[in-house]
Amino acid sequence: MGSDLKKVIPLRARRADAPSSKLADAHIEDLRAARRAALNLMEDAVLAKREVEQLNVQLLKEVEQRRLSEARLSQSEERLRLLAESFQDYAIFTLDPAGEVVTWNLGAANIFGYEEQEITGKSAGLLFVPEDRVSGVPEREMETARSTGRASDERWQQRKNGSCFYASGIMVPLRADDTLIGYAKIARDLTQEKQTEEELLQHREKLEQLIAGRTVELAEANEILVLQMSELRRAEEERVALLQRVVTVQEDERRRIARDMHDSLGQQMTALRLKLASLKDDLHRGARIDAGVEHLQDLGKRLDEEVNFLVWELRPTVLDDLGLAAAIENYVHEGTRHCSIAVEFHAGRMGDARLDGNLETNLYRIMQEALNNAYKHSKARNLNIVLEARRNEFVLVMEDDGVGFDVEEVKGTPRSAGGLGLTGMTERAAIIGGTVEIESAPGKGTTVFVRVPFSQSK
């Protein structure tokens, strides 16, 4: 531009006016500076335009993204609403940070009884029973959800009509960019399950009680069974012991019979044999045998008496023919011929009354055992026997004035060991349902009581 100006301005003028030329140069420089400034501004304007265009594009993108996000959020909220409405067995609702209801699904309306317009904007504390509201349970539930990320519980809650139901629920906090915007809660009515659980618990307690009772019964039955088994074992042992005693008694009886036959019949038979040999010799010599025959007759008589006595001891026929009273009287009569004890027998009001054969036999054997003990051991001078029928029992009493003995010391001692056979007497009485009681003391004699109820005498 400077060279162009030089061409325009005449040389004369430049020469004639040199100061003016300087001013022109200065002006030219200003114009140049202005031009450069204008160019710079134009470049800045272009750059600014480009930046604005870029910002506009970016802003449009952000607006579009926000619109898409809002659309997706709306769709998500709609899906969440549809999802919440589809769960009619579950109460699904949201609260604001203050604990007031914001959303309320159909399941919540069915369970709690509140319609959405009735509960929206109201405190969720209405859903708790009064005592939980007073104790601050709703506030603690939100605090737990905030601090731990969830709050779950099972408790009784209250419907709109005031009735209560047992519910299981879980609450979670809702946050946006770490900012709490509310809470979401899901609850379910577990009243039926709770009642079923309580019924099962009651049935279980009853079952445990029944089992405990049955266990006690079984334990008692087991104890009874153990006792019965013990009694059976003891009874078996007693049976075996009784059989052993029976065998022992039989052997003792056989030994006694053999001894008596040897001592009496054996001696008499030996004397008879010797006397017969003597008579034979007398006949060969032609001597008189009258005295010898008389002696033989006397021996035969004694043999007959001995045989009769042995038979009488074994089983007196009078017991079968005439009964117990007559048999005892006969035994006393025969027994006094062989001992020095004065025996008296009183049948009371029995008369000729007959008893059961087994009863008569066992009473007779008990009497026989007691009298044999008295004959052998008592050293008594007098012995009294009483047989009578009282109001509801038969009684046999045998009493002597002998030396007596210590009952506890002698009781149960086997006869083979020197005892008095008290066990045998007791067992015979037990066979006929009776009892034997013995009263004695050293130096004070002995009394034997035998009692048999009428029911056992038939």
Written description of the protein model:
There is one protein chain. This protein is an alpha+beta fold and 458 residues long. The protein folds into 4 domains: 2-75; 87-189, Beta-Lactamase, CATH 3.30.450; 200-314, no CATH class; 316-456, Histidine kinase-like ATPase, C-terminal domain (Heat Shock Protein 90, 2-Layer Sandwich), CATH 3.30.565. It is 62% helix and 17% strand. It is built from 14 helices and 10 strands. The protein has helices at 2-8, 11-16, 18-86, 106-112, 116-119, 130-134, 137-148, 191-285, 290-314, 317-321, 324-335, 357-378, 407-410, 422-431, and strands spanning 90-95, 101-104, 151-158, 164-176, 179-189, 342-346, 382-389, 393-400, 435-440, 446-453. It has a 5-stranded antiparallel sheet. A 5-stranded mixed sheet has the order 6-7-8-10-9. Helix 11 (324-335) packs parallel to helix 12 and helix 12 (357-378) packs antiparallel against helix 14 (422-431). The radius of gyration is 68 Å and the shape is rod-shaped.
Which terms summarize this structure?
458 residues, alpha+beta, Beta-Lactamase, 4 domains, disordered N terminus
Topology diagram in text:
Blueprint: H1 2-8, H2 11-16, H3 18-86, E1 90-95, E2 101-104, H4 106-112, H5 116-119, H6 130-134, H7 137-148, E3 151-158, E4 164-176, E5 179-189, H8 191-285, H9 290-314, H10 317-321, H11 324-335, E6 342-346, H12 357-378, E7 382-389, E8 393-400, H13 407-410, H14 422-431, E9 435-440, E10 446-453
Parallel strand pairs: 6-7
Antiparallel strand pairs: 1-2, 1-5, 3-4, 4-5, 7-8, 8-10, 9-10
Helix pairs in contact: 8-9, 11-12, 12-14
